[in-house]
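Below is one protein, fold included:
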Amino acid sequence: MAYRKFTPRWSLTSEDARMSSWYFNTGGNADSEDDVEAAFDTFWNAIKAWYGPSTVLDEYRWYFSASLVPRGSPWGDSARTIDRNSAGTGNVNMLPPQCAVVVTYPRPSPHKRHPGRNYLPAPLVSATTTDGRLHTSVMDAIANAAEAFLEACVAVGYQPVTVAKIQGVDSALIIPKLRVDNVFDTQRRRGYELYTAAAEREVTTIP
């Protein structure tokens, strides 16, 4: 067996980056990273209208291993790093950076508790409904683009998997389906660490 970890990175500001990783069981196949990268280019191009110019897909990183790396364990140094420079094309305000669109990979029992997921960067406010949910049109666009990406990977022999520990055994679970729903997740670590403006007022006290 052979395994690959593929990590696209989006820059937001000089000190912020958004990353999400996809894992593949490549079996006896290898050296199709170009094809996977091209498929992800297509994925990003299909959805980047829902992101602003400040969200820039700027790098792909690859990590290789001859055996499955347990979930949460380091993969070592990247084996391949490819630059990109593809910004969002939307022109309205973005949601707070801790908001994330989630692509989830549900599976039936006995592995129902190990769905796996990817967190995409915060989109524009125009991607939301009046009650703060992800708009149906955006949800469908992301789901369609994610399906096309994963199926393009399968076509070149890179089987997408979720890395999980099943009864104490590290496992690579094949991804049978995906879901994008209309609920935003939040990741506090993605939020701005420092404020750039503040409004302060002195409050009168009883003498």
Summary: The first helix runs from residue 33 to 47. The chain has one domain: 3-190. The mean pLDDT is 92. The two ends are 76 Å apart (CA to CA).
